[in-house]
Design goal:
elongated; 56% helix; alpha+beta; 444 residues; 14 helices; five-stranded antiparallel beta sheet; Alpha-Beta Plaits
Length: 444
């Protein structure tokens, strides 16, 4: 008996609600206000995305449009019944689309947690999309799209076969005509995720582009990048991204870390006045000075706490190329593991600052060891290079007259081979007797 009474009261409530348009509109407007306030909470979990603010604003605009249509319909009810019905249908259409978007949002969150990869970016734990989570997202989009189409057909009373097929025909015709635009990007986006070589927070370099980029997010159609140098957002379609040569600096293949190269172009020494029997010794003397310069660079760099070099691995330098106008020496060094990050200053400090400090130290040591890093311009007006024999006379004096003893204690190596040919006032400028002896002992 109680059940029958409850069912009767329930029927009476719905009949009253249907008959009272004001009640229906009041409930609709109240729902709009509630959804407007809950929009920020619903999308708050995605605050690590760049699109978070845009999503919130878009959803709130949709809710305001729906609420505005309900309010206008409430004011015009009874005066323009036909116009009122159209406003109701428009409002219900907006509400249907909004609800489907919210459902997809929660579906996306669940698939990322269920099929995604847990990853820590800038000290915060999150979930990066994978091949499986992206397939689940696509499945959810297809199903929700079909439900949305069905509800829109019911709202606009397109129940006849001709009306239904025409509506569906327009949608499928649009998809068929535009599949060449969006289908390749979705396909290549899945390939990128399936390769597991790129993920949110990775630092990459594209082809011959010298700039570095951080991956913010790989979406269905495009990938959002953060330019490390200029600290701004960039967007590239997935089909265009995969056509580049992508170098992922975050993923390393060795426990030593990321290996970087710096090239220095050293001018050719002039051995024209050196006798044949002494040229090999002169060349060895020159290469030893270059080795000492780079060794001193490594010592000074590894003493600093401002660089991100892997100090457990020594730097390497080689004569990489004997070019037309210079000897190209390559300096290789290893970086500490680059963290997953979306903060530009972290990458700038880790890579760019370290590279700049090494360049600065190489230039400083080249001055101390009298090794020119400038490539000479080969034109007729250019004076010939200074003879190596004239540049280092004391070395050749010992080499050609070994019976003559040279008092090495009185003259440091720096005075003999670095600043001997400068004026006396320049030689003594900025150098005390203690600093000269210190430099001489280091080179010796």
């Amino acid at each position: 008996m109680l059940n029958e009474l409850g069912e009767g009261m329930n029927k009476q409530f719905w009949e009253i609600l249907k008959q009272n348009d004001f009640t229906i509109h009041a409930v609709s407007i109240a729902c709009c206000i509630l959804l407007y306030l809950l929009t920020f909470v619903i999308f708050k979990k995605n605050d690590h995305k760049v699109s978070f603010g845009l999503e919130t604003k878009t959803m709130r605009i949709a809710i305001l449009v729906y609420g505005g249509l309900q309010l206008i319909d409430l004011l015009l009810i009874g005066e323009y019944p036909l116009f009122s019905q159209i406003l109701v249908q428009l409002g219900q259409s907006f509400l249907t689309i909004y609800v489907m978007i919210v459902i997809y949002h929660f579906w996306n969150e669940w698939t990322d947690r269920r099929f995604g990869t847990e990853k820590q970016v800038d000290g915060k734990k999150g979930y990066a999309a994978t091949y499986n989570s992206r397939l689940a997202d696509i499945t959810g989009v297809v199903v929700l799209t079909l439900f949305t189409i069905y509800f829109l057909i019911e709202i606009w009373n397109l129940n006849s076969l001709l009306e239904t097929t025409s509506f569906l025909g327009i949608i499928f015709a649009f998809l068929a005509l535009t599949n060449g635009i969006w289908a390749p990007d979705i396909y290549y986006g899945i390939i990128i995720l399936n390769s597991k070589l790129l993920s949110d927070g990775d630092t990459i370099q594209l082809g011959d582009d010298p700039d570095l980029y951080m991956i913010n997010r790989v979406t269905f159609v495009y990938t959002v990048l953060i330019n490390v140098k200029n600290n701004h957002l960039s967007m590239i379609r997935n089909s265009q991204l995969i056509n580049h040569r992508i170098e992922n600096l975050t993923r390393r293949s060795s426990s030593k870390g990321l290996r970087l190269q710096l090239i220095y172009k050293v001018g050719y020494p002039d051995f024209s006045e050196v006798s044949d029997k002494n040229r090999e010794a002169a060349w060895s003397h020159y290469i030893n000075r270059v080795d000492k310069m780079f060794s001193q660079v490594q010592e000074k760099i590894y003493e600093s706490d401002k660089v991100a070099c892997n100090k457990d691995v020594d730097m390497e330098w080689f004569l990489e190329e004997t070019a037309d106008f210079s000897l190209n020496f390559s300096l290789y060094f290893y970086l500490e593991p680059l963290p997953s990050t979306m903060l530009g200053h972290v990458v700038r400090t880790h890579i760019i600052k370290t590279r700049n400090m090494i360049n600065s130290e190489v230039y400083k040591q080249s001055i101390i060891y009298n090794i020119g890093l400038s490539t000479p311009v080969m034109i007729d007006q250019t004076p010939p290079p200074i003879s190596y024999k004239k540049q280092y006379p004391k070395f050749f004096e010992e080499l050609e007259h070994p019976e003559v003893e040279v008092n090495k204690k009185e003259e440091s190596v720096v005075e003999q081979e670095t600043i001997y040919d400068l004026p006396e006032d320049v030689q003594n400028a900025g150098f005390t007797e203690g600093s000269k002896a210190k430099l001489g002992n280091k080179e010796a």
